[in-house]
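WARN no homologs supplied; continuing
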Amino acid sequence: GSLFALLVQSFYAIDEFTARIVPVFTLATYRQLFSHPANLDIILRTLAMALAVTAAAAVIAFPVANYMARYATPRMKAVFYVGVMLPMWTSYLVKVYAWRLVLAKQGIFSWFLDVFGLTPVLDGALATPVIGGPSLASSYIGMFIVFVYMWLPFMILPLAAALERVPASLLQASADLGARPGQTFRNVVLPLALPGLAAGSVFTFSLTLGDYIIPSVVG
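OK structure emitted
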């Protein structure tokens, strides 16, 4: 209902003098949205960030979820679930501002890279046009890191639930038929895990697409 109301109101206009919604059907808002180059630039950058975050979250979450579902003991599985869900109990704003301090120019992330002699790599990345900046806390790279951290649990949990439903007998049958681990993953595990991957992708993509706090604090 709320999404439908939002869709209907998107065809209304806003009175520039009173800032009130004028309930008259018009396409002026959409013309304004797509006619200005700045708006198109924002749309493309937002879509690119959402796609990159979704892909990175899937790559990181899959091995974690696979270990949780197939190899972890019951006690270790409980530890993993608590570890994945524990950050979700912390305030969203507290986590964002904490990450800003972590990614600051003299923050712990820069110190960690300096210890391993990777400061030139960081400087090169920050010097890259578009994605770089004066520090990780003021760049698209830092924004990407924070987005992945924030929404990673929303990718891990659906994937773990989907992988737990993959019958072990199918994996044994695949091995008995001579399939290598990579073939089993591509032809057996991945197709059966697609519902969880799709659910996690919807979460991470839509949450990144609609978030405005992280870009205003980090980046």
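The CA atoms of residues 36 and 42 lie 10 Å apart.
OK
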